[in-house]
């Protein structure tokens, strides 16, 4: 297969960074050697001791010199995060599990609050008081949508359970005809 060079000059803005004098990084990057692609091109700061688990991208050879230690990965959210960091940052399998892990971590935090005898004031912590003050329509819409979703799920699940229970009832009773059953009861 022949590799043909295509002409993209008809696309507005195409090749805008091809001119080194028009490079947006020009003052910061005067010498375009791409040496930074080969590895560190600066003196690396002293490495912070790694005494907690630190997750880092598979695109990096090591952890950054300085990192936060306040909340190392733990629990179910930590397991999800460990799974996510097995994949490249250009993969949905990296980012979607991280989003899920954040939501799971919220639930874990609420459970920890209850374990420690603290009842979380979710209305205040979620900022609903400020939202009520500044965006009542948005807050009411948010609660209405949440209530509709919950009601839909409840109706959907109840409908399945009712059908299932009725089928079980028919199988267990000798009165498969509802009229016979009503006569028997009266």
Number of strands: 0
Coarse structural class? mainly alpha
Q: What is the succession of H and E elements? A: HHHHHH
Roughly what is the average pLDDT, rounded to an integer?
Answer: 82
- Sheet with the most strands? none
What is the radius of gyration computed over CA atoms, rounded to a whole number of angstroms? 30 Å
Q: Please estimate the helix content.
A: 40-55%
How much of the sequence lies in strands comes to: under 5%
Q: Please report the number of helical segments.
A: 6
Uncertain runs are none
From the spread of the alpha carbons, the general shape counts as extended
What is the CA-CA span between the terminal residues?
Answer: 85 Å
Tell me briefly what this model is.
The protein is 48% helix and 0% strand.
Describe this structure in words.
By secondary structure, this protein is mainly α. The protein is built from 6 helices and no strands. The chain has helices at 75-84, 92-115, 122-125, 128-134, 136-172, 178-185. It is extended. It starts with 74 loop residues before the first helix and ends with a helix. The mean pLDDT is 82.
């Amino acid at each position: 297969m022949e590799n043909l060079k295509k002409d993209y000059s008809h696309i507005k803005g195409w090749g805008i960074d091809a001119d080194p004098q028009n490079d947006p990084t020009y003052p910061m990057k005067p010498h375009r050697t791409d040496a930074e692609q080969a590895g560190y091109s600066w003196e690396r700061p002293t490495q912070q001791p790694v005494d907690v688990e630190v997750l880092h991208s598979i695109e990096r050879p090591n952890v950054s010199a300085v990192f936060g230690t306040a909340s190392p990965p733990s629990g179910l959210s930590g397991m999800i995060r460990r799974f996510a960091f097995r994949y490249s940052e250009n993969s949905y399998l990296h980012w979607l599990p991280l989003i899920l892990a954040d939501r799971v971590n919220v639930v874990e935090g609420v459970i920890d609050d209850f374990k420690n005898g603290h009842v979380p004031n979710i209305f205040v912590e979620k900022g609903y008081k400020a939202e009520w003050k500044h965006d009542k329509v948005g807050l009411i819409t948010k609660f209405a949508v949440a209530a509709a979703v919950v009601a839909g799920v409840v109706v959907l699940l109840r409908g399945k359970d009712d059908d299932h229970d009725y089928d079980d009832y028919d199988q267990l009773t000798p009165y498969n005809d509802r009229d016979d059953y009503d006569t028997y009861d009266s």
